Amino acid sequence: SAKAAGRRQWRHYQPVLQTGLVERHELNEHLDTAIAESAFKLYYQPVVDLRTGDLVAFEALVRWPHDRRGMVLPDEFISLAEESGQIVPLGAWVLERAAQEAAVWHAESSAVRAATGRPPLRVNVNVSARQFRDAGFVDVVRHAVDVSGIDPRALVLELTESVLMRRDDRVHTDMRTLDDLGVGIAIDDFGTGYSSLSYLREFPISILKIDKSFIDGLGVSQQQYALVEGIVRIADTLGVQVIAEGIEQPEQRDLLAAMGCPLGQGYLFAHPLTPDQARTLVRDTTYEPA
Ligand code: C2E
Ligand code: MG
Ligand code: MG
Ligand code: MG
């Protein structure tokens, strides 16, 4: 398929961070132009209910179509944009675009989903630490909600543990403001950083995403299995929803469903989709009540 061919192609591009200073400088300038022209694309990866297979959310994942480098993946430019501060306008664009796309899904599916007892499809948006720390961040979120008209409860911000580690007043205040707005907060890549379950008590966290590295070890190591099961159980006790990341094998899905992990994401279900593919999926999975 074109998608598979595209993926093969991406591997040929030199990692940006290993390129020379001159090229790096050049890339920064290109990034500036790309931000000014909103030349990025968002892909959307489904999050599914592990018991029923029902679609519950999409995670927005940014890509940069670059004339010489092809489709550049976020690992190649997000850290560069963080260092330069360009992540602030780029992140604002991502939030607004994703919220607008979600509003389209809602127009197509909300009535039927409500009639069948399902909440509106959520959209998960990645937010980097630098972006969260910017003084205007909460206003950017408010603006994205206002202009798109989406129900704020359908918007989830994915933060990494590096944001929560700082524990200063601003982080607490902004978290509370976002929570009051109705916006959900997820901890992304849980288990890879300075993981602490006390974050779940200290901050208004609604979702915990268990990193792929734990899911990889599920069927292999008894210890990994016990660890994941423990996290799922504690999260459940605290009323926090769990998403298992990077599920590739049916066996991993079965083990997770059996231990009561509610949600999952991974190539087993779907790769990140283009906006058109995502809309088609929304349409196809929105059935009329019997
Ligand atoms: P993430 O938020 O943890 O997103 C999951 C990454 O794993 C995505 O890579 C996704 O395509 C990939 N993935 C999903 N399922 C599987 C699977 O079953 N197997 C494997 N091997 N991979 C899977 P992607 O799109 O390249 O994004 C990489 C990271 O870049 C993201 O990790 C996130 O930290 C960051 N990122 C992406 N979009 C944005 C954005 O708009 N803003 C910010 N600040 N960061 C972003
Ligand atoms: Mg994420
Ligand atoms: Mg993740
Ligand atoms: Mg990640």
TrEMBL record:
Residues 24-286 form the EAL domain. It comes from the Bacteria. This is EAL domain-containing protein. It comes from Streptomyces kaniharaensis. The chain holds residues 762 to 1051 of 1051 of the full protein.
